[in-house]
Structures are given as C-alpha cells and as structure tokens.
Write a structure and sequence with these properties.
Chains A, B: InterPro entries: CASP/CASPL, CASP_dom, CASPL. The structure is a homodimer. Chain A is mostly helical. In chain A, about 65% of the residues lie in helices and about 5% in strands. In chain A, helix 1 packs antiparallel against helix 2, helix 1 runs antiparallel to helix 4 and helix 2 runs antiparallel to helix 3. The interface between A and B is large, with 47 and 47 residues.
C-alpha cells in the first residue's frame, strides 16, 4: 500500500513538472517574422490561436492540481472523488493536446487544398516551442491515463487475475 | 439493476447511432470549389487532413463496438474489462474531436498571422458536413463520458452519499 502511494505520488509530481514545462514553453512561444519581399514584419505567438491558449490554461490547472492534491491526507474519503477529477483532467489534457497538435500540423505543413503555406520554415523557434509544449503536455496526459487505469485496476480487476 | 442495464443499453445504442451519423457525414464531406479569377477548380474533402481521417476511423470503431458490446451476456465477468475499453474509446473520441474542431476552426476563420484565408465561404457544404460530424461525434463522446462516470460512481461512491 505504501509503495502504491509512493508510486502515485511520484506520478503526480512528474505530471506537475511536465505540465509546468509545457506551460512555460507555450508562454514563451513568440517570434517575429520578416517578409523581405514585401518588407513587412509580423509577430506570431501562442495567443494567435484559441487552441494554444486553451492548452496553456489546461496545463496551468493540471500543474497546480497535481501539486496541491498531494497535500490531501492519505486517509481522507475525498480520494474517492479525486478519481473523477483525474478522469476529467485526463480528458481535458487529451482534448487540448489533440487540438494543439492538429493546429501545429497545419502550421507546419500548410494545407495545399486551401492554398495555405506552412509557417514553421519562417518561424522555427515558435514552432519548436509549441511542439515541445505539446510533447510535455502529452507526458502529463499519459501520467493521468496511468493514474486512471491504476484506479480502475484496483477497483475492478479488469484483467480477471485470479 | 435491470433499470441500470436498460439505461446503459440505451446509452450505447444512442452512441452507436451518433457515431454512425458522424462517420456518414464525414465520408460525404466533399465539394468542388471554383476560383473564377484564375479559372481553377479544386476539390476539398475530408481526406485532405489526417485529423478528419482519424475522426472517421475512430467513429467507425466506436460505432461497431457500441453495437457489438450489447451482445455480451449480462453476467459475463468481461464487463469489468469493458470499463477500461470504454475509457480508452472516450479518450480517442475526445482527442479526435478536438483535433478536428481545431482544424475546422482554422478552415473557417483562417489565420491572419499566417496569411491564411478561411475556406468555408467557398465550400459551405463541405464545412457543414464536417461541423455536423464533429457535433455528432461529441455526442458520442458525452455518452462514453457518462458511461465511465456511471461506472466510477457504482464502484467508488465519489460523492460520498451516506
């Protein structure tokens, strides 16, 4: 039981660090792009697209929650409710990660059929920050998925081990 | 117990219908666009973007699963494993829905900072199909979320009802 508690404690702290890294990488995703042919400079940043702002907010929430939940006493009955909150946060992370991944894929590759050119060649630093943030955020998602599966496993024995 | 079984049966059949509708709407999302100024016609369709193809595949899988799982005998121990599969499918639906939503938002609004124009004005029928598919698929997601929360509620009493 103590080993199991230490394991979930470790997972939550790793989740906290991963989502904090994701939030920091996103918040610093900003770069100026100069188009020399028309002599125009524009700035691209995470705040251009709603899905990156969502990803930032979700990562900040998960980071704070992952840290704070460890302060709950081990014998509290509230740990039962924590399973539901974990499941919700996992879904929020999955959704916001996928939305951001979809957007960065479009920003990287463009969409030939819509006549859109990729912008990662022009703003590589911005794209690297976004991709790093999504990778870290997916780590957070995997951790919450493991926490949910561990909870279901403890309760239900879904693998039907005798 | 019988009422609870009927409730989950009803939810699964609704999920089956919702994901089937989403798959059909997506599979028929295709439209020719004519640019009169340069006299060029292109065809936009769901297969242009990977995220729409993912959404189609996930919806077909969930549709078949939602129907087939009702054939499992009520007293089978395998219902314990079904909770885990439900959770996985819910995450897949959440992810593919969000990715598609993010892409259709970009296709609808464009991205000013990347110099992308929205294409929904040119291909309204295509966009309507995609948006309808995403809405139906979100209904499927909500149903699987409810199924998971019902399962957790039965096992854990997370609201601490005396």
């Amino acid at each position: 039981m103590a080993a199991k508690n230490q394991c979930t404690f470790g997972l939550r702290i790793t989740g906290c660090v991963a989502t904090l890294s994701a939030a920091l990488a996103l918040a610093t995703a900003r770069q100026s792009v100069h188009f020399s042919d028309v002599n125009v400079s524009i700035q691209v940043g995470y705040s251009d697209l709603m899905c990156y702002m969502c990803l930032l907010v979700v990562n900040v929430i998960v980071c704070v929650y992952s840290f704070a939940i460890n302060l709950l006493p081990k014998k509290s009955l509230l740990w039962r409710s924590v399973v539901v909150i974990d499941a919700m946060l996992m879904v929020l992370l999955a959704s916001s990660n996928s939305a951001a991944l979809s957007a960065i894929c479009l920003e990287r590759n463009g969409n030939f059929h819509a006549g859109w050119r990729g912008i990662c060649g022009l703003a590589p630093q911005y794209c690297d920050h976004i991709i790093g943030a999504i990778a870290a955020s997916y780590l957070g998602f995997v951790i919450y998925m493991i926490l949910l599966l561990l909870a279901i496993n403890n309760l239900l024995n879904p693998l039907l081990v005798q």
